């Protein structure tokens, strides 16, 4: 049994379109809490985080969109994640666009540093989100959280203070990549992070990519944060995302990863991000994300019910 705390993060300002603000409500409507409780876990819903008020931020990068609003969310979620990381709970952050991870990941990294344990991050996404302001062609901040957490230069004062601790790129594994900007690719390759595109999955299979990373987490007595973006999955089965890229993970590949993570027993926190219910088809993406989360928390293939349409 795991003590799970749900925290909504209704942020849409980091993305290029509206709709992710409805993500936390969609997860609740799709029965996430009830599904996890049915698996024997204790589940507490903390409601939604509130954005801090932030004034004008100085930056030379005028193309950054809605910067004060995003910074307000980053500061709020960093504070929440830092506090939750020090408790005997497993937090799930219900997004909201991927800019929320600027707060959640850095909060967990800061707490892990205080505990003297290494923080690892598994990033399941079509995009590496490794842009810095100078490299971003769009100015959408949801494409920058990994670079920010790793302490790359060029960011405005997102936290209202220096980054307490940086994510070591060697402790970062990105799986499912299929859309990376040119300068972003150079930054990612220079960082030393473990990055695998869909071709790597095709050629080697998920297990050969993920198991060595999980072994490193276990051997280091590390903490593992998983950040699952809807666009990791093939858009034909998960359409409710504003950044669709064809060729994503199949239904079984996505569940396979979740089952492997459950078997490892290593996951200590989770982001569910980029769900845009405005783009969904009768809630099927929200239900799929709930199903994947259930697999991560112990639902087996043999327990899955047959559905008729």
Automatic annotation (TrEMBL):
<keyword id="KW-0378">Hydrolase</keyword>
<dbReference type="GO" id="GO:0005737">
    <property type="term" value="C:cytoplasm"/>
</dbReference>
<dbReference type="InterPro" id="IPR006035">
    <property type="entry name" value="Ureohydrolase"/>
</dbReference>
<keyword id="KW-0464">Manganese</keyword>
<feature type="binding site">
    <location>
        <position position="129"/>
    </location>
    <ligand>
        <name>Mn(2+)</name>
    </ligand>
</feature>
<keyword id="KW-0056">Arginine metabolism</keyword>
<dbReference type="GO" id="GO:0030145">
    <property type="term" value="F:manganese ion binding"/>
</dbReference>
<dbReference type="InterPro" id="IPR023696">
    <property type="entry name" value="Ureohydrolase_dom_sf"/>
</dbReference>
<feature type="binding site">
    <location>
        <position position="98"/>
    </location>
    <ligand>
        <name>Mn(2+)</name>
    </ligand>
</feature>
<dbReference type="InterPro" id="IPR020855">
    <property type="entry name" value="Ureohydrolase_Mn_BS"/>
</dbReference>
<dbReference type="Pfam" id="PF00491">
    <property type="entry name" value="Arginase"/>
</dbReference>
<protein>
    <recommendedName>
        <fullName>Arginase</fullName>
        <ecNumber>3.5.3.1</ecNumber>
    </recommendedName>
</protein>
<dbReference type="GO" id="GO:0000050">
    <property type="term" value="P:urea cycle"/>
</dbReference>
<dbReference type="GO" id="GO:0004053">
    <property type="term" value="F:arginase activity"/>
</dbReference>
<feature type="binding site">
    <location>
        <position position="125"/>
    </location>
    <ligand>
        <name>Mn(2+)</name>
    </ligand>
</feature>
<feature type="binding site">
    <location>
        <position position="231"/>
    </location>
    <ligand>
        <name>Mn(2+)</name>
    </ligand>
</feature>
<comment type="pathway">
    <text>Nitrogen metabolism; urea cycle; L-ornithine and urea from L-arginine: step 1/1.</text>
</comment>
<dbReference type="GO" id="GO:0006525">
    <property type="term" value="P:arginine metabolic process"/>
</dbReference>
<comment type="similarity">
    <text>Belongs to the arginase family.</text>
</comment>
<feature type="binding site">
    <location>
        <position position="229"/>
    </location>
    <ligand>
        <name>Mn(2+)</name>
    </ligand>
</feature>
<dbReference type="InterPro" id="IPR014033">
    <property type="entry name" value="Arginase"/>
</dbReference>
<keyword id="KW-0479">Metal-binding</keyword>
<feature type="binding site">
    <location>
        <position position="127"/>
    </location>
    <ligand>
        <name>Mn(2+)</name>
    </ligand>
</feature>
């Amino acid at each position: 049994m795991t003590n799970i705390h749900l925290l909504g993060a209704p942020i849409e300002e980091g993305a290029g379109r509206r709709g992710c603000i409805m993500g936390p409500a969609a997860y609740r409507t799709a029965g996430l809490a009830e599904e996890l409780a049915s698996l024997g876990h204790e589940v507490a819903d903390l409601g939604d985080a509130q954005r801090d008020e932030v004034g004008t931020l100085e930056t030379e990068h005028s193309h950054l969109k809605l910067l004060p609003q995003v910074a307000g969310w980053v500061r709020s979620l960093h504070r929440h994640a830092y506090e939750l990381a020090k408790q005997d709970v497993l937090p799930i952050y219900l997004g909201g666009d991927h800019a929320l991870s600027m707060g959640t990941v850095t909060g967990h990294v800061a707490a892990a540093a205080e505990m003297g344990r290494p923080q690892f991050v598994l990033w399941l996404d079509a995009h590496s989100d490794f842009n810095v302001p100078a490299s971003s062609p769009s100015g959408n901040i949801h494409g920058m959280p990994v670079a920010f957490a790793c302490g790359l230069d060029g960011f405005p004062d997102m936290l209202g203070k220096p980054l307490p601790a940086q994510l070591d790129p060697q402790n970062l594994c990105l799986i499912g990549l299929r859309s990376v900007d040119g300068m972003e690719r150079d930054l990612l390759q220079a960082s030393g992070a473990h990055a695998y595109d869909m071709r790597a999955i095709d050629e080697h299979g998920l297990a050969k990519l993920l198991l060595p990373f999980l072994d490193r987490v276990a051997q280091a007595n590390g903490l593992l944060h998983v950040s699952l973006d809807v666009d990791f999955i093939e858009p034909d089965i998960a359409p409710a995302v504003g950044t669709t890229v064809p060729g994503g993970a199949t239904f079984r590949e996505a569940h396979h990863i979740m089952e492997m993570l459950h078997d490892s027993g290593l996951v200590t926190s989770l982001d569910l991000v980029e769900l845009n219910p405005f783009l969904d088809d009768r809630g099927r993406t929200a239900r799929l994300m709930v199903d994947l989360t259930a697999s991560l928390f112990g639902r087996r293939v043999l327990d899955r019910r047959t559905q008729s349409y």
